[in-house]
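2024-03-11 09:14:02 DEBUG pipeline.ingest accepted 1 chain
2024-03-11 09:14:02 DEBUG pipeline.ingest length=101
2024-03-11 09:14:03 DEBUG pipeline.predict start
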Amino acid sequence: FGAARTPSLLSMDVDGRVLRFDSTSKLLASGARVGWATGPAALIERLELHTQASNLHTCGVAQALVAALFDVWAERHGGDASAGFASHMDGVADFYKERRD
């Protein structure tokens, strides 16, 4: 809960070998079970092929709700949904910091 977030390994990757996995489970709702991966295109493509072959069914309702939320954040932050997500994460961190202190 410090002043600055620790940089992710992905932000320091210079060789294109790092994947970052994020989830909404601790930031929005534990039951949402929506996540995503960020990384080099070649690795993401391989991951996508594996996911298509191994996932039987994903929850379309949860994905639609999270997508709609990111759309709202984009509208509120000049088209930048990630800025809205970052703002929400700051609020969640403040909430847990207050509870801790």
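2024-03-11 09:14:41 DEBUG pipeline.report The two ends are 11 Å apart (CA to CA).
2024-03-11 09:14:41 DEBUG pipeline.predict end
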